[in-house]
Amino acid sequence: MKRMCRASLNAPASGCLFTIAFVHNLLLRHSECGVLVDRNGVAELNDQFDPEESDPSKSGALNSSLWELKALKKHFHADVSKLAFVFDKIDNKTLPNDLDEHLAHSYKSLFASAIQARGGSVKLAFAKPDVLFLDGDLGGGMRMK
């Protein structure tokens, strides 16, 4: 879980969605690892986790926390940020995520869903500009066709 959360910090939004859902399902299955989410006092700068260690028992993951989930709550993509908040309310009634739903995501599908949520179109400019450069700029006064 720790390795996947660390990798998600550098992953595209589509990869983050799958990783968050998968780690959430793992935490539901292995509730004893919930301490990694709730552990206070383990700062990102003092993380004892060694991502280069191939033996998980020697990696120091159990002495760390899943602080990466806090960072993902502030992700630029709203869907990633929203999904990262699922870790705030895990209890015995929480259902696992459907991973198939998150496997199908790509930049294209995320963009299309964002456009659809805004009514099918996005205005990129309010008015078509007349000139490319302003007077006084290098090349000022050039008209656009």
Features:
145 residues, mainly alpha, 7 helices
Q: What is the overall number of helices? A: 7
Q: Largest sheet at a glance? A: none
Q: Which range does the strand content fall in?
A: under 5%
Would you list the SSEs in sequence order as H and E?
A: HHHHHHH
Looking at how many chains there are and whether they match, the oligomeric state comes to single chain
Average pLDDT confidence is 79
Shape category: elongated
Extended strand count: 0
Q: What is the total domain count?
A: 1
Structural class, by secondary structure, is mainly alpha
C-alpha end-to-end distance: 55 Å
The radius of gyration over CA amounts to 22 Å
Short description:
The chain is an all-alpha fold and 145 residues long. Helix content is 39%, strand content 0%.
What does it look like?
- The protein is mainly α.
- It has one domain.
- Helices cover 39% and strands 0% of the residues.
- The protein has seven helices and no strands.
- The longest helix is centred in the N-terminal third of the chain and has 17 residues, at 13-29.
- The chain is elongated and about 65 Å long.
- The N and C termini lie far apart (55 Å).
Task: Break the fold down into its secondary structure elements and pairings.
Blueprint: H1 2-8, H2 13-29, H3 35-38, H4 68-72, H5 78-84, H6 99-103, H7 107-117
